[in-house]
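Below is just one:
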Amino acid sequence: MRKNNEKSLIKISDQLVSSVSILMKSAKSEEDLRIGFEKILDPILSKLGVVSAPKYERLSKEATSIYKGRPDAVHGMIIIEYEPPFTFKSKRSIEHAHKQLIGYICAEASVRKEKLFLEDPKLVGVGFDGTSIFFTKYQGDKTKLKTEFQENDFIHTPLFSFDPQSSRTFLTLIRSLSRRPLTAEHLSESFGPTSSLAPKAVQAFADALENWGNERVKAFFNEWKRLFGIVYGEQFANTQKKEAESLSSLYNVSKQTEFQELLFSVHTYFAFLMKLIAAEILSLKETAFTSSFSEQLTHESDYI
């Protein structure tokens, strides 16, 4: 599988470089480059399995109040600064684009911060003029929280010719950083009780527990009840009408479902969710170019 992924990456990287080479024969301005490159990139991202919703010439509303500049394109955690063709022949132009990227990254990171303190922003800036590319990254102390970022917290890589190797680096970054950050807010929004997914999953687990009659599942349920009975004492064994009604309403489950069965279904959902998230993270760490583990799982046989 990994060899196939590597071959696919090489092929797509070559395709991107070839398409950009053709584009550069007609691109005369920054706007020509931006529009042309984004059109080329769209089907390539689809091949990578990246669901992209790029933003053009805008930061988030909150970030705009911090930094007045407008990034050319934002793909998830990747911010691209396009420059007119061949601009990076000038070192001054490289530094100018680098400073702009720092401003965008700092503004977005400030909005995404938790409470007062900032961590490693994990955003990456890309400077691109059609023939050359560089990457702006955070290099500050990742072991300490801070209240603001400084310009010297960031460095940019050397300038690379846009060839299959640098194209591969770009695609790997955009593939791995296109997903939403794993923050508490995003996880809650996507998978919490108020999401569309959680009630459906909990309903399915509760229905399976009550009606499918699987002895192995019942054994897990009984062991779970025993452990929670030890932790919470007799109150756990008693009928808890108020708690049951609250959970039933929250997950839109029938009120006839017993409290313990419902709570077990909720715990099962979140335990399963954590395992899937861990598998996704590991698959990206193994190689940022693998397709999604969860996406592959949806196409597997019911009997794996």
Observations:
- The chain has two domains: 2-181, 188-298.
- The two ends are 18 Å apart (CA to CA).
- The first helix runs from residue 2 to 23.
- Confidence is low (pLDDT under 50) at residues 63-67, 286-290.
